[in-house]
Design goal:
alpha+beta, elongated, 3-stranded mixed beta sheet, 5 helices, single chain, 219 residues
């Protein structure tokens, strides 16, 4: 009985390779132990299938992203060449700027998709360094102010004199902030303000964005 108890605890703790030795057990205990061993085998198969499925999903996203990025890189390069040409028409210049903006946005989305896939499978890598959170926020504000203005939103930034430095992955942190701006654009009520602030709280750097919801919230 003690042997069964210890075996059950090992299986419950996640040791899927453990097998209870049933050699010298009486019939009822032996059958019960063999059932536990069978559960262990089933769990192992389920874990293996889950891992196989996750690997397949990650590989699929990676391959599709790579296939999309190849022609997209060509589009970005040709748009850069067009911008160097002497184009006089204002409409034509505007169209090229839109192509430039949208192609780069699509590139970022593809990169985000790949990173999200890695994060889900636990394969994401963080390159931590000292990052100026103020500068990161200002960069995001600069890239999103026109977009918010076109959506009928007034961006209000609380500027502070003191720089706030954090230990973070600058690329991933910027994507998080950029995604928050994207959500604010999508879900804010037109004609309202979006408030952005960077400050220090409990020895942590904080990026704050607040908006008024377009839809009534049932909370």
């Amino acid at each position: 009985l003690n042997n069964i108890k210890q075996g059950g605890e090992k299986i419950a703790s996640g040791d899927l390779n453990h097998k209870i030795n049933t050699k010298y057990m009486v019939l009822d205990f032996k059958e019960f132990s063999e059932n536990l061993n069978s559960i262990n085998n089933g769990l192992q198969l389920a874990v293996n299938e889950k891992m196989k499925s996750e690997r397949f999903k990650t590989e699929l996203i990676t391959n599709v992203s790579h296939d999309i990025k190849t022609p997209l890189t060509s589009i970005i390069n040709y748009v850069s060449l067009l911008k160097m040409c002497e184009i006089e028409g204002e409409d034509e210049k505007k169209y090229i700027d839109i192509l430039d903006e949208k192609s780069k946005k699509l590139k970022r989305l593809i990169e985000d998709l790949t990173e999200a896939s890695k994060a889900t499978s636990g394969n994401i890598k963080m390159n931590l360094s000292v990052v100026n959170l103020n500068e990161l926020a200002l960069q995001a504000v600069g890239e999103n102010s026109d977009v918010l203005e076109n959506a009928g939103l007034d961006l209000v930034l609380t500027e502070r004199d003191t720089d706030i430095f954090v230990n973070a992955d600058s690329q991933h942190t910027f994507r998080i902030i950029d995604n928050l701006f994207s959500n604010a654009r999508k879900y804010s009520l037109t004609g309202t303000r979006v408030y952005v602030d960077v400050y220090k709280e409990n020895n942590y750097g904080v990026f704050s964005i607040k908006n008024i919801s377009k839809e009534k919230l049932n909370i």
